[in-house]
Amino acid sequence: CKKMFLLSIWMLTMLQFSSDAFQLRTTEAAFRRPSLARHTSTLGAAMELWLDLRPTGPAAQDGNVGAADAVVLRPEQLDDFLSSPEASGGTAPRVLVAGDDGTLRDGRALGGRPLGACADVSAPSGQDAALSLVGSAGWILASFGTDGGADGGVPWTMIPAENLIGACSGTSTSVAASVERAEDVQGLAHALQLGVAALCLRVPSGPTWDAAVSARDERSSAPGANLPSERRAGIVPGSCTRTRTTVVADRVCLDFVRTLSPSEGVFVGSSAKVLVLVLSEAASGSGYVPSRPFRVNAGPVHSYVLMGDGATVRYLAEVVPGDEIYVYDSGTGQGRVVAVGRAKVEPRPCCMVHLESPSEDRETGSKVGAEGQVFLQLAETVRIGRVGGEGYRVTDMEVLQDDKMTGTVSD
After folding, report:
1. Cys-Cys crosslink for 263: which of 209, 248, 311, 389, Cβ 3.0 to 4.6 Å?
2. Both ends of the chain: CA-CA distance in Å?
3. Residue closest to 268 by CA, chosen among 319, 230, 229
4. What is the mean pLDDT of residues 384-399?
5. pLDDT for 139-194, tens place per residue?
6. Within the chain, what is the greatest distance between any pair of CA atoms?
7. Is 47 helix (H, G, I), strand (E, B) or coil?
């Protein structure tokens, strides 16, 4: 018999799938900047190049200022720059003023409209201060210092940048990164396969500038870069097959602050490319255990879970009370956002389930197939969502024999 399960497939452009049994069309929320996960596999939108004129002043650039999307000035440099030829004309860059108080303001707006903040993240305390601004600042201009770290090497750049990008994902805050070396450009432009929203350089020429221009061109030509800076996801029917692999894992139960229906659940998986709908424990009714409609047994700590914006994922190990998760109803095809009240971690036996999406979009014929896996606790209360709102218990799945799919649950 055919049994179709609901998978969330991450794609670079909007996916539209339909089947005889149901039809789902999803368009995820649009954000001003790339709203991707800490751990996803899609490149972000186009990247800007900023020119930092604070160390040298505008006069030292010999008319090359127009090559930048924006310039960064000290307050005392603003009047001189605005009176220069580089500040006018159709190619004139935006003007950003970095104040001594750490603010970043619009130099062309009356009164200096606040745009964001400057943050020195060369030390962990500076990174913490920058992270505290996420969601309240439009931009965070991060600098990484010039002295070697505690290990005597070059300043830490990639890890602080990735932490900021991940934290800003799905928020109204964008990250601009100061870059001193050509070797750091590609890493910053593609960090977490998202990249910073802007690179800030000191001179509009030389190897570092050339590398930044090349990275910007790559970002601008990437598939989906010209879309309105939004993350696209599709929800499709796919196949799930239990394998013979069974392990003891630190399993996470997500206890929500709201009651879930038997057909509601969350999307989880070992790969951000393909996630499966795991339903709530609202449909127990067995007499062996009470129904717990607020709970989803989501699997081990390493798994990803789809967050409340419907566009980012996070490790289950990182989910804390107050985090909002995307809850999907397989019966109605509707989603909502529900906060986590508790994340309960316990060692439990878990089996591995192989996930596979359709190989192509049934309407357009384009290739969209993806494979992955998820580990789920071996318990009768753990159910995978099916088309129409039904659930299928993990313990009811027949196991693969001799590496062939016999008796599998398939699309």
Report:
1. 389
2. 9
3. 319
4. 83
5. 999 999 876 555 556 788 899 999 999 898 878 899 999 998 899 998 899 888 78
6. 80
7. coil
Type of residue at 335: G
Contact predicate 163/171, CB 8 Å: no
The first and second tokens of residue 195, run together, are 């990249």
What is the separation of C-alpha 88 from the centre of its chain, rounded to a whole number of angstroms? 37
Which tops the pLDDT comparison, 8 or 270? 270
pTM > 0.70: no
**Burial level of 158, CB count in 10 A (0-12/13-18/19+)?**
middle
Place of tokens 């159910």: 383
What is the SS3 string spanning the chain?
CCCCEEEEEEECCCCEEECCCCEEECCCCECCCCCCCCCCCCCCCCCEEEEECCCCCHHHHCCCHHHCCEEEECHHHHHHHHCCHHHCCCCCCEEEEECCCCEEEECCCCCCCEEEEEEECCCHHHHHHHHCCCCCCCEEEEECCCCCCCCCCCCCCHHHHHHHHHHHCCCCCEEEEECCCHHHHHHHHHHHHCCCCEEEECCCCHHHHHHHHHHHHHHHHCCCCCCCCECEEEEEEEEEEEEEEEEEEEEEEEEECCCCCCCEEEEEEEECCEEEEEECECCCCCCCCCCECCEEEEEECCCEEEECCCCCEEEHHHCCCCCEEEEEECCCCCEEEEEEEEEEEEEEEEEEEEEECCCECCCCCCECCCEEEEEEECCCCCEEEECCCCEEEHHHCCECECCECCCCECC
Bridge-based pairing state of the strands 324-329 and 264-271:
antiparallel
At 156, the amino acid letter reads: W
Cβ contact 313:28 at 8 Å: no
List beta partners, residue 141.
118, 176
Please write the tens of the pLDDT for every residue from 40-71: 333 446 889 999 988 877 665 555 677 888 99
User: Worst-scoring range by mean pLDDT, 37-41, 148-152, 248-252?
Assistant: 37-41
What are the angstrom distances between the C-alpha of 100 and each of 54, 73, 78, 108, 263?
A: 12, 11, 14, 18, 54
Calculate helix-pair angle for 124-131, 158-168, nearest 10 degrees: 20
The mean of the pLDDT values for the chain is: 77
Span 267-290, mean pLDDT?
84
> What would the two tokens of residue 25 be?
């069309």
